[in-house]
Amino acid sequence: MKYFQNIILIILSICLVSCETSVDASDLLEKQQLVVINGYLSPQDTTLKVQVSRSKSRASSTNVKDMVIKDATVVITDEEKNEVALTYMDVSLNYEAPASGLTITPGKKYFLKVTALGKEYKASCTIPTESVQRIEKNIKIKEDEFSGNRLLKVTIGDIKDQNNFYIIGAVVTQSFDNGGGTINDGVENVNFEFRQFATDVSRENSVITAEGFFNLSANALPNPKLKIKVANAEKILYGALRATYLNDFNDGDPFAESVIAPTNIEGENGFGVFAGYQLAEVEETF
């Protein structure tokens, strides 16, 4: 299954935006098309977003916009029965509402209710209690330049005494002088490959690191900017994005088996993830 990825990456901006909804488990599609619902909540959000779509196989050439269900009813509720209704936005292909309409609080549980194609779907999530408090970086020149000329090593302070599921992303912004007083910015995602997914399960309170590569242009102006984002996510969100990455990476490999993404959407032919995360970020020049 594929939803939006823009690191944030969520990523969730890490995070989380390719707005494509596909299901890799072909056996799930044999009898009936699925209603795919994805929504990720964070206290750091400025906009609440949920996507509601029909599923499509990877082999399908159907336009992504044609798969989106635009007339659904989408409501998010908290434990105190406060609720906010999300409105469909054609620009983003999401149902959206300002985050000011419903406070997203660490440790609290939230409930999603969607009515689509005459059927009702439900899910719930719990926001992780903590975000990462320490993010350190080290940048060095790579010995080879076949996959970028700089290597970024990110070290994060593990949240102690609990199992955590981290998603790591970073972007580099370089400015270029085009003459005549015109300055343009170039933005590049740091490529962490599979290392963007890290967990302390079976090694609690350990050192968490991830290495990624990027290109630094000799023609850029001095002092490029680096923004690192680390999401502490619910296990199901970590598993869903990890499955998407693996399926994309192995796409076209006849010997690779598709990874079935987890789902917590309740309802007939429902599929997808409604989950919480906390986002930490640092930004600096180098």
The computed structural class is mainly beta
Measured as a percent range, the helix fraction is under 10%
Could you list the spans in which at least 5 consecutive residues all have pLDDT below 50?
1-27
Number of helices: 2
How many beta-strand runs?
A: 15
Order of helices and strands: EEHEEEEEEEEEEEEHE
The radius of gyration over CA amounts to 20 Å
Domain count: 1
Would you tell me the overall average pLDDT?
Answer: 87
Largest sheet: 12 strands, mixed
Distance between the termini: 37 Å
Outline the fold blueprint.
Layout: E1 35-41, E2 47-54, H1 64-67, E3 73-78, E4 83-89, E5 94-98, E6 109-116, E7 119-126, E8 135-141, E9 150-156, E10 165-177, E11 183-189, E12 197-199, E13 208-214, E14 225-233, H2 235-249, E15 270-285
Parallel strand pairs: 1-15
Antiparallel strand pairs: 1-2, 2-5, 3-4, 3-6, 4-5, 6-7, 8-9, 9-13, 10-11, 10-12, 10-14, 14-15
Walk me through this protein's architecture.
The protein has helices spanning 64-67, 235-249, and strands at residues 35-41, 47-54, 73-78, 83-89, 94-98, 109-116, 119-126, 135-141, 150-156, 165-177, 183-189, 197-199, 208-214, 225-233, 270-285. It is mostly beta strands and 286 residues long. The longest helix is centred in the C-terminal third of the chain and has 15 residues, at 235-249. The radius of gyration is 20 Å and the shape is globular.
